[in-house]
Amino acid sequence: MRLFFALEVPADLALGIADWRARALPLAGREVPAANFHITLAFIGELAEAALDTLCREVDAQIAARPAAAGQLQLDQVGYWPRPGIFWLGPQTWPDTLGGLAHKLGGLGARHGSERRRDRFQPHVTLFRHCTTPPPAPTELPQFALPYREFLLMESRQGRHGVRYAPVAGWSLGD
Ligand code: 3AM
Questions:
Q1: How far, in Å, from the CA of 41 to the mean position of ligand 1?
Q2: Fold for the domain defined by 2-172
Q3: Which residue's alpha carbon is at the smallest distance from atom 17 of ligand 1?
Q4: For burial by CB atoms within 10 Å, which of 68, 76, 131, 134 has the most?
Q5: DSSP readout, 78-133?
Q6: CA neighbours within 13 Å on the CB side: how many for 111?
């Protein structure tokens, strides 16, 4: 199973973001379908199905030891990372608790063999992949509120019509 931890983008917000993308940005690279919008907290990579229970119990234990808080992100900036060729939408600031959660989940992933990320955590929704040049600034600035009360363990499945993400487990965040 190919897994990652993520915050879900609710369907109505995803449609709003896709509408804004169509209005405010030229087509750049490959458009990510609105149904696939998410905010990755930590990438786990390939995990044997037999190890899934262990991973979930480790997350339970982490959350019990240090509960992470629910919150809200203001998705108000866009960015471009030339190396993966990704154009994204994300917040300029975010709660330390969210960065802490991403760090903890990344640590659990590392225990299961995934590479620890070395770059700074920047929450983001990938809008376009395979961009070879930086897209121009949006003609309309983004301003989307993304409330989050839980995070999910997602499975990435390659289908005939592209990649699809399916939730495998979820954890509520405290107040
Ligand atoms: O949230 P985004 O779209 O930026 O790029 C992949 C996607 O991130 C990333 O995990 C998310 C779900 O697929 N990803 C894929 N392979 C990766 C890897 N080897 C990776 N992130 C880190 N290392």
A1: 10
A2: Cyclic Phosphodiesterase; Chain: A, (3.90.1140)
A3: 43
A4: 68
A5: EEEETTTTEEEEEES---HHHHHHHHHHHHHHHHTTPPPP-SPP---EEEEES-SS
A6: 13
ipTM over 0.90: no
pTM of the model: 0.94
Q: List beta partners, residue 159.
A: 162
Q: Which atom of ligand 1 is nearest to the CA of 2?
A: 13
From the CB of 126, is ligand 1 less than 6 Å away?
Answer: yes
pLDDT tens profile 91-133: 999 999 999 999 999 999 888 877 777 778 999 999 999 999 8
Beta bridge partners of 157: 164
Task: Identify which of 38, 41, 43 to mutate to test ligand 1's pocket (most ligand atoms within 8 A of the CB).
Answer: 43
